[in-house]
Structures are given as C-alpha cells and as structure tokens.
Amino acid sequence: DTEVTQTPKHLVMGMTNKKSLKCEQHMGHRAMYWYKQKAKKPPELMFVYSYEKLSINESVPSRFSPECPNSSLLNLHLHALQPEDSALYLCASSQDRVGRKLFFGSGTQLSVL
Amino acid sequence: SQQGEEDPQALSIQEGENATMNCSYKTSINNLQWYRQNSGRGLVHLILIRSNEREKHSGRLRVTLDTSKKSSSLLITASRAADTASYFCATDGKGATNKLIFGTGTLLAVQP
After folding, report:
1. What is the bridge-based pairing of β-strands B106-111 and B10-14?
2. pLDDT averaged over chain B?
3. Shortest CA gap A100–chain B (Å)
4. Which tens digit of pLDDT belongs to each residue from B78-107?
5. Across the interface, which of A56, A99, A105 has its CB nearest the CB of B30?
6. Beta-bridge partners for B109
7. Rounded-to-10 torsion of CA A29, A41, B14, B18
8. Three-class SS of residue A109?
9. Which residues of B touch A88 (CB under 8 A)?
10. DSSP per-residue string spanning B12-43
11. pLDDT tens digit string along A36-60?
C-alpha cells in the first residue's frame, strides 16, 4: 500500500466553525507533513512530525492545530479560520529523515466563508 | 530563502516534442527532487538526484544538476498529452531537518 489517504476531499466552513482534516498512511513512514497550497503557487510547508513528535512548525497561526495520534495518522484541527485560509491542504509522508521522497495525498480543498 | 525558482513559468508544446524545465536554488543542498502535480491533486514524486550526482535518468525523464551554478533541469522526451501538469523542483537545504521546500513550478501543456 503506497497511498496517503486524506479526508474529506472538499470542505466548506464558516469562520466560527471547528473542523478537522485527517490523513492516514500505512507504509510505516515515520515522518508526516502538512503543506498548504494556494492556486498557481507551490506547496508551503506548515508542520512536520517526526516519530510522532512535532519537529517543525513554520510559524503557522494557532488557528491551525496539528495532532499526530499515532505513526499512521495525522490530523489538522481548524478553528476560527479566515477567508484567506482557503486553499488546498496536502498531507505527505516520508520514510524518516530529510531527503527522502515524499508521498502525497490528494488533498483537501478548503473554502472558508 | 531556500525556495527554488523555475523557468519557464509556463510551457506549451506539441505531442512528441521534448520539454525542458529549469530550476535554480539559493542554498547548498543534500539533494534535489522533481515532482509532478495534476490540477487540484496531490504531488507525485518523479526523481531524486543527490548533490554528488550530475545526471540521472528515469524512463523518458532526464535530470541534470549543477551545484556550482545551483541549478537543475528536467527534460521530458517524446512528450504526451498525459504529461500535461505542473512540475516542481524541491530542495532540502544542508542542515535543515525534514524540510523540503518547493520551487515556483512550471505549468506544462502538451497539445495533442
């Protein structure tokens, strides 16, 4: 199984809502990532978990809260988002350390109204 | 910033032609990777070239790396309509842990 599965595929939420994005992989990878991608732009790194510990937070606003319950799962909790947070949110995993190739999920297209 | 810049930003060619995309980056790297993204989808890894390698092939793909110029190129030979996608280079800077930073991307359109 070489898949990274993200749910939901699409999400529309109001600025007062709380929602969560989910990501799952069963490749035994020990590093997992959240990227944010605006239209016609490259993916921007948000968070990195390495061996289930948060190792990188790219100064992301606290309205985004990541969680790694176990080595296969990665969540991104969303609260009080702004319309400018509308984007494609991509989860990825890699075997372990930096330099390994990333396996990406198909993403969650998020719209904040 | 470590981010790479790619040129051209957009490229339109006919099926059967070759497509060349270039990537320049700013800091020393451990390796450089190329990814492909179909519209609105996740990225797919194409090829990885290490900093001590100069050229690598994978099927119809050829990647070169010139660390003295901090640049890389991706050549797709005998292109097909299915190659239509955005292509991104990505680098991990020396000393940066688990941090893969993507370049600005090239949008390739292959006309049938």
Report:
1. parallel
2. 92
3. 9
4. 999 999 999 999 998 766 666 888 999 999
5. A99
6. B12
7. -60
8. strand
9. 40
10. EEETTS-EEEEEE-SS-EEEEEEEEE-TTS-E
11. 999 999 999 999 999 999 999 999 9
